[in-house]
Write a sequence for this structure.
């Protein structure tokens, strides 16, 4: 269609995502994204937030179901689509909506940890009383020295389990 403006907006979801179905059964979702433009203040030499601009986003089909399930209030999103001014409000008929990975961590079905996805049993709760220590006959052997961590993240070895990635760091970083 001629005269339509394709735009990319970035902001926070404001309120809840409303999911409805058309007469033919097609899902349609509607939500508001508050985009806060940033302006450079030459007098103070720094960036500042200007007035928030509400943009009403509409999505249809499978994207509507996914948006209704994944997006909640205050989630940062990036949306693209056709921008129009209707009755004094900006409307974005979205072609794509995604979580802003600069602000959030997003999981998809294949990358969700097994425990969170319900594919593995949750770890057993720890006992409230400590078991009695067993006497040791032999002292433990000294641990073998490990290699220094790689300076380049891309060159570092991959972890074999999710626990290795999510375990708290002992280096105090």
């Amino acid at each position: 269609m001629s005269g339509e403006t394709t735009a990319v907006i970035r902001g926070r979801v404001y309120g809840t995502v409303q999911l409805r179905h058309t007469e033919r059964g097609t899902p349609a979702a509607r939500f508001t994204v508050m985009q806060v433009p940033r302006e450079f203040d030459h007098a103070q030499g720094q960036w500042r937030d200007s007035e928030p601009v509400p943009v009403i986003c509409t999505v249809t089909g499978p994207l509507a179901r996914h948006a209704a399930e994944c997006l909640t209030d205050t989630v940062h999103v990036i949306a693209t689509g056709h921008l129009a001014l209707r009755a004094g409000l900006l409307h974005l008929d979205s072609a794509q909506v995604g979580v802003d990975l600069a602000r959030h961590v997003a999981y998809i079905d294949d990358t969700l940890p097994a425990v969170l996805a319900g594919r593995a049993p949750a770890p057993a709760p720890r006992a409230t009383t400590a078991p009695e220590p067993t006497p040791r006959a032999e002292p433990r052997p000294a641990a073998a020295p490990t290699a220094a961590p790689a300076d380049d993240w891309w060159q570092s070895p991959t972890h074999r389990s999710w626990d290795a990635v999510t375990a708290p760091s002992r280096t105090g970083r």
Remarks:
- The CA atoms of residues 8 and 80 lie 4 Å apart.
- Confidence is low (pLDDT under 50) at residues 144-150, 159-173.
- The first strand starts at residue 5 and ends at 21.
- The chain has three helices and seven strands.
